[in-house]
Design a protein that fits this description.
β3, α6 (141-152) and β4 (156-158) form a beta-alpha-beta unit. This protein is globular. Helix content is 31%, strand content 25%. The strands form 4 sheets. Strands 3, 4, 5, 6, 7, 8, 9, 10, 11, 12, 13 and 14 form a 12-stranded mixed β-sheet that branches. It has a 4-stranded mixed β-sheet with strand order 19-18-17-20. The model has no long low-confidence stretch (mean pLDDT 95). The two termini are 29 Å apart. The chain folds into 2 domains: 1-328, Rossmann fold; 332-435, GMP Synthetase, Chain A, domain 3 (2-Layer Sandwich). It has 436 residues and is an alpha/beta fold. It binds 5'-O-[hydroxy(phenylacetyl)phosphoryl]adenosine. Residues 92, 135, 141-142, 212-215, 234-239, 243-244, 301, 303, 324, 333, 338 line the site of 5'-O-[hydroxy(phenylacetyl)phosphoryl]adenosine.
Length: 436
C-alpha cells in the first residue's frame, strides 16, 4: 500500500485533529470579521462575534455562505487580503452571467499544492511518475491545480490541457505517461479515440487515473479501469474552496479523504439547514480554516453526499466523503463545465423573437456530453422565412456558447410546444443518469 505525503497530519489522532480545526477556525473567524465587511455584517446580523467561536462545536453558530454571496461581491469583495497579496485568480460559472471569482495568496497556492501532493501519494503516485494533465489550464482550477501538486512531489508533468484527442493519444504513447488526469468522461473518450486509431492499452504506460470535476459512477470506474488497464481514482473539489484536492480517494476506493486540517466538512439538510447526524445523506458544507485570500465560512457546496468518520484501512484518520450522489440545486456539469439553467435564461431574455420557455436536453453520445436547447419562438414567428429562423438560431447558439463556454445545439420550436408546468418549471431533461 502507498505511503503518506504528510503522515503526521494524515494519521493524526481524531481528537487532536478536532482541536487543531477549532484553533484554526477561531483564527479564521477573527480574520474575516476584521477584513471582510460582508462577514462582519453577516455575523452581526446573526448575533455572533469572534469571541463566541472557541472550538469546532461553535461552528454551527456561524451563518452560511452561498454562491450568490460571491456574485453579489463580484469580483473581489469577499477577499480577506489586499490585492497585492493575491498572486492568482481562477473562476468558475456563476448562476447568471457573472463568474464566481476566487483568489489565492502565495501561501494558498502552497496549501493547494500540498493537498494535491497528498492526493497523488494517496494512490501511489511518486517522483518516478510521468503525469499527463489533460484538465483544462486557464481560469478552470483543474489544470494548474494538478500541475503544482505533481511538481511538488517531484513527478514529471506533461501540461497538455484539454482537447485535440488524437494528439493526446500520441503524447501518451510518446512521452510514456504513467498517470492520466482528466474528467472521467474524457478518459472514456480517449479510450474510444485509441480504439479508432488502433492503439491498444498495452501500447501505453498508464497505470493510474485521477478523475473528477464531474459526477461518475462505480460502473464508469470499472469501464475506465478495464479499457485503459489502470486503477481509476476519484478526486473532488470546487473552486470556491480551493479547487481539486479538497478530497481524494485512497487505494481502498471506499470514499474520499477530506483534507480536514484545511477544510472542515459538515452535512446539512439542504432545506432546513440543520446539521445532520453522522452517516446521513445531505448537502456538503465546507469551512476553510487555512485559506488567506478567500476563506469561506460554511460554504454551501450543493453537492449531496455522506460523511464517514470511521478510520480507513489505509491508516488515514481524516473523514471520508462518499462519491457525490447528486446536487441540491439545478447545476449541470457538461463536458466538465458547470452550467446553470439561469445562465441560458439570461441569454434568451435578450431576444424579443423568443419566449423564456425552453428545455435543456443533455445526453452522452460516444462518451461525449451533448446539449440541445429547445426554445419557443414568440407567437406568429414561425410563419416567417426559414432563413431568418436559421440566422436567429445561429445568433442565439453563438451567444450561448460565449456565455456558457461550451457548444450547444439550438433548436427553435413553435409557440406553446414546450410543456408548461403547474409548479416549478422543468427546464432540464438529463438522459445521462450520472448520479447512481
Ligand atoms: O471541478 C475542481 C476540480 C477539478 C475537481 C479537477 C476535480 C478535478 P468547479 O469547476 O468549481 O471545480 O466545480 C465544482 O464540480 O461542486 C461538484 O458538483 C463537481 N465535482 C467536482 N469533483 C467531483 C467529483 C472543479 N469527483 C463542482 N465527483 C463540485 C462529482 C464533482 N462531482
Amino acid at each position: 500500500m502507498a505511503g503518506y505525503w504528510n503522515a503526521e497530519i494524515e494519521t493524526m489522532d481524531i481528537e487532536a485533529l478536532k482541536k487543531l480545526q477549532g484553533e484554526r477556525l477561531k483564527a479564521t473567524v477573527e480574520r474575516v470579521y476584521k477584513n471582510v465587511p460582508y462577514y462582519a455584517e453577516k455575523m452581526k446580523r446573526a448575533g455572533v462575534t469572534p469571541d463566541d467561536i472557541n472550538g469546532i462545536e461553535d461552528l454551527k453558530k456561524l451563518p452560511f455562505t452561498y454562491k450568490d454571496d460571491l456574485r453579489n461581491n463580484y469580483p473581489y469583495g469577499m477577499f480577506a487580503v489586499p490585492m497585492d497579496q493575491v498572486v492568482r485568480i481562477h473562476a468558475s460559472s456563476g448562476t447568471t452571467g457573472k463568474m464566481t471569482v476566487v483568489g489565492y495568496t502565495q501561501n494558498d497556492i502552497g496549501v493547494w499544492a500540498e493537498c494535491i501532493a497528498r492526493s497523488l501519494v494517496n494512490v501511489g503516485v511518486t517522483d518516478k511518475d510521468i503525469v499527463h494533465v489533460a484538465y483544462g489550464y486557464g481560469l478552470f482550477t483543474g489544470g494548474l491545480g494538478l500541475h503544482y501538486g505533481a511538481e511538488k512531489i517531484g513527478a514529471t508533468v506533461v501540461p497538455v490541457s484539454g482537447g485535440n484527442t488524437k494528439r493526446q493519444v500520441q503524447l501518451l504513447q510518446d512521452f510514456k505517461a504513467t498517470v492520466l488526469c482528466c474528467t472521467p468522461s474524457y478518459a472514456l473518450y480517449i479510450a474510444d479515440e485509441m480504439a479508432e486509431l488502433g492503439v491498444k492499452k498495452e501500447d501505453l504506460s498508464l497505470r493510474v487515473g485521477i478523475f473528477g470535476a464531474e459526477p461518475w459512477s462505480e460502473e464508469m470506474r470499472r469501464q475506465i479501469e478495464e479499457r485503459l488497464g489502470i486503477k481509476a481514482y476519484d478526486i473532488y473539489g470546487l473552486s470556491e474552496i480551493i479547487g481539486p484536492g479538497v478530497a481524494m480517494d485512497c487505494e481502498c476506493q471506499t470514499g474520499l479523504h477530506i483534507m480536514a486540517d484545511h477544510f472542515i466538512p459538515e452535512v446539512i439538510d439542504p432545506v432546513t439547514e440543520e446539521v445532520l447526524p453522522e452517516g446521513s445523506k445531505g448537502e456538503l458544507v465546507f469551512t476553510c480554516i487555512t485559506k488567506e485570500a478567500l476563506p469561506l465560512i460554511r460554504y454551501r457546496t450543493r453537492d449531496l453526499t455522506i460523511l464517514d468518520w470511521e478510520k480507513c484501512p489505509c491508516g488515514r484518520t481524516s473523514p471520508r466523503m462518499l462519491r457525490v450522489t447528486g446536487r441540491s440545486d439545478d447545476m449541470l456539469i457538461i463536458r466538465g463545465v458547470n452550467v446553470f439553467p439561469s445562465q441560458v435564461e439570461s441569454v434568451l431574455l435578450k431576444y424579443s423573437e423568443v419566449e423564456p420557455h425552453y428545455m435543456i436536453v443533455v445526453d452522452r453520445k460516444d462518451n461525449l456530453d451533448v446539449m440541445e436547447i429547445q426554445i419557443e419562438v414568440t407567437n406568429g414567428l414561425f410563419s416567417d422565412e426559414i432563413r431568418k429562423l436559421e440566422a436567429l438560431e445561429r445568433t442565439i447558439r453563438d451567444d450561448i456558447e460565449s456565455t456558457l463556454g461550451i457548444h450547444a445545439k439550438v433548436r427553435l420550436v413553435e409557440h406553446k410546444t414546450i410543456q408548461r408546468s403547474e409548479g416549478k418549471a422543468k427546464r432540464v431533461i438529463d438522459k445521462r443518469q450520472l448520479y447512481k
